[in-house]
Amino acid sequence: MAGLSRKKLQLPKSVLEMKFMKRTKERIEKELENIHGHEGLYSNIITNEMRTATGNYIPEASFIYCENLIDGRLSFKGMNPEIERLMDLETPKEEESGEMQKDVSDEVLVKNMNKFKTRKRQSLTPSKYNVPSKKKK
Amino acid sequence: MREVYLSNCEKGFLQKVISEGHRLDGRNYNESRKLEISFGSEYGSCIVSLGETKVLAQVSCEVVQPKQIRPNEGILYINVEISPMAAPQFEANRQTDLTVYLNRLLEKCYKDSKCIDLESLCIVVEEKVWSLRVDIKVLNHEGNLIECASIATLASLAHFKRPDVTRSGDKVIIHTLIEKDPIPTVLYHYPVCIAFAIFSNDILVSDPSFIEESVCTSSSEEGGNKGGILVVGMNQYKELCLLDLMGAAIYNSNLVHKALINAADRCKEIVDLVKKSIVNNDTLRQKRVKKNFSDIITTEHMLSLSKRDLSICLKNYNVDDIEMSQDEEMEDDEDQNPEPSKYDVVPSLPQTAEIIAQKGASSWIEISSGSEED
Amino acid sequence: MKASVGDVVLPGDYCEEISAVGEKAKVIIGPGLQKEIDHVYVTKAGILKKRNPNTYWVDNYQKRYIPARGENVIGVVVQKAGDIFRVDVGSSTTAALSYLSFEGATKKNKPDVQIGDVVYAKMLVASKDMEPELVCVDSHGKKGRMGVLSDGFVFKCSLNLIRKILNPHCPLLESLKNEWPFELAAGMNGRIWIKANTMRETIALGNAILGAEYLSDEEIKSMCTNIATILAGHVS
């Protein structure tokens, strides 16, 4: 705190000396006094470690997040349709997030691309190239 | 002691299971859990386990002045302790109804039945007698504490040996165990307490588990005399030493009669096992084979003293079916290791420590075996 | 003593790896770890584990439950006190469950919960200085999977077993779910509620869950088929 206020922009002394700035001058002096007073008050409690501490450590009391556990309420083979509906709602979501980007699977894509390429080639190249490719098939 | 809260569904389901002729852990009505007795390194110390219920008993003796009304008799004192180790509802160093109840039943069973020859514990009439103290510590509470504790008391008393004493004139010399062979306690008969749980007025379930006990006592508390606990104390000659009735048992003499018949057979089995294991232990001691509690420590999982008795189990379920390969290995280990110690006389402590280490037990066992050489 | 990930750790050990990571990035320190001024200290005996991104915790064996915020637990209603239910969840004190924290409950429309009922609820407040508080609704006021569990059977087990069966990689539920219809609720407080159509099926389910505690994945699979055959052989 003290370091910050020292760095803060301060009015030049000459301006503060002006007559109409008297009140502002008094206020600034009071603030400074307060800061020093606080420091003295808590100096025995606030340690250097506290000043340098970071908020990087997030305590977590539960294993659920650490071990990535599933919800403990489950139902199978139609024992409790309500729970199974909830389970269904949750599971597809996870699958979607993995497979949403792949509406067309890799293999299908490769096949289609190959077809596309050969078609392009067919249209671009003369017919003599066309004949051997048909033989291969 | 904190209360143990039973839910309605536990009560309902258990009563349904019992009324349909089954039990939660797959036993029959009159089938008991597996009973195991293992002795410690000192005389009169043993751990008895009945399924997952475990009780440690230790007998100790000291010379005291006799009571004035019985100047030529020794004193037997029984003390039961249940710590939070047994179950979370217990508090440390606090007497509960259960400890008082166990203490009373055990005193009735072993003091009032006069199974111990107290006169043989006398050293000098009106001046000095032996006082035997049995300390019972409950290690794990999984139901039927009374049966387990009484077997532990009996086994430790029968196993115990007190130092020999010689009198010359006014002098009394107590010999150490090395100077003179210690003297075993004289037991006229071997009484054991057997507990039964009563369900829906006429079903008798022997060796009740924790949940069976709590369901049948709670149903007797909630009005209606449907459940209850029945404790029978009996010796190997089928002589009744103690009868403790609770709930439905009070009103139903047929039930008591049925329980007595069941208890008679069970008592015989238990006493035979106690005698056999003491004889085994004595012969091993004579061969100077180290025997202590480290023998019952298993290293196959984290809870070293417990086995794999499942509290919920199908009738035909067998753990061994699943992991044949592992169990075979384990058995091999057990077979191999005791062999050298069975035939070789173990002369000194360092080697004992080695053998124990081979069995894979933790190293703190060494300390307890230090006090063992007698 | 210094410890690193994968070690068996004891209370008082510290891990420099976590401190080093914590200098630069956010670190989640899970159960069994505590940040002190100079180090991250271990407070439980177990195995130090790590999961990306930067999550550390101690995997220990435990049977007694210490309430933790956000966990779903199974409790038994033991008392109705004014406008709250007292619920035994196996922790050092009972937890409070307000009757307003049920779906659709109002001052006039109280939920039908009796003493001795089993509830599946979420820990809302779990502090070492305060009574734990449960709720049976999510943040949208919907009951979701929570609420009173009727019929069935409840049993206790170690906290590790709960974590084992709820782990997404555990084969137990995978191999059981096609055998017979059943329903279960596993509370992080070491209690499992199970329900099936018949008594034998319920017992078989409990048997399979308890039996899985010390088995490997392969053994669990063979145990499940074993139980299923036992069950099938005696259904008639």
UniProtKB/TrEMBL annotation, chain A:
Xref: Pfam families: MPP6
Superkingdom of source: Eukaryota
GO biological process, one term: maturation of 5.8S rRNA
Stretches the record annotates as Disordered: 115-137
Record-linked InterPro entries: MPP6
PANTHER family, per database record: M-PHASE PHOSPHOPROTEIN 6
Name this protein carries in UniProt: (apollo) hypothetical protein
Organism: Parnassius apollo (Apollo butterfly)
TrEMBL record, chain B:
Any Pfam family: RNase_PH
Annotated InterPro entries: ExoRNase_PH_dom1, Exosome_comp_Rrp42_subfam, Rrp45
Domain of life: Eukaryota
Statement: the UniProt record of this protein carries the keyword RNA-binding: yes
Protein keywords: Cytoplasm, Exosome, Nucleus, RNA-binding, rRNA processing
An annotated GO cellular component: nuclear exosome (RNase complex)
Gene Ontology MF terms: mRNA 3'-UTR AU-rich region binding
Localization, UniProt: Cytoplasm; Nucleus, Nucleolus
Exoribonuclease phosphorolytic domain ranges (all copies): 31-163
GO terms, biological process: exonucleolytic trimming to generate mature 3'-end of 5.8S rRNA from tricistronic rRNA transcript (SSU-rRNA, 5.8S rRNA, LSU-rRNA); nuclear mRNA surveillance; nuclear polyadenylation-dependent rRNA catabolic process; rRNA catabolic process; TRAMP-dependent tRNA surveillance pathway; U1 snRNA 3'-end processing; U4 snRNA 3'-end processing; U5 snRNA 3'-end processing
UniProt record similarity statement: Belongs to the RNase PH family.
Name assigned to this protein: Exosome complex component RRP45
Gene source species: Parnassius apollo (Apollo butterfly)
The organism's taxonomic lineage, starting at the top: Eukaryota, Metazoa, Ecdysozoa, Arthropoda, Hexapoda
UniProtKB/TrEMBL annotation, chain C:
Main location: cytoplasm
InterPro entries, per database record: Exosome_RNA_bind1/RRP40/RRP4, KH_dom_type_1, RRP40_KH-I, Rrp40_N_euk, Rrp40_S1
Single GO BP term: poly(A)-dependent snoRNA 3'-end processing
Protein keywords: Cytoplasm, Exosome, Nucleus, RNA-binding, rRNA processing
Gene Ontology terms for molecular function: RNA binding
Domain K Homology: 152-198
GO cellular component: cytoplasmic exosome (RNase complex); nuclear exosome (RNase complex); nucleolus
Pfam families, A to Z: KH_6, Rrp40_N, RRP40_S1
Annotated Exosome complex exonuclease Rrp40 N-terminal domain residues: 27-64
Database matches in CDD domains: KH-I_Rrp40, S1_Rrp40
Family: Belongs to the RRP40 family.
Name of the protein this chain belongs to: Exosome complex component RRP40
Organism: Parnassius apollo (Apollo butterfly)
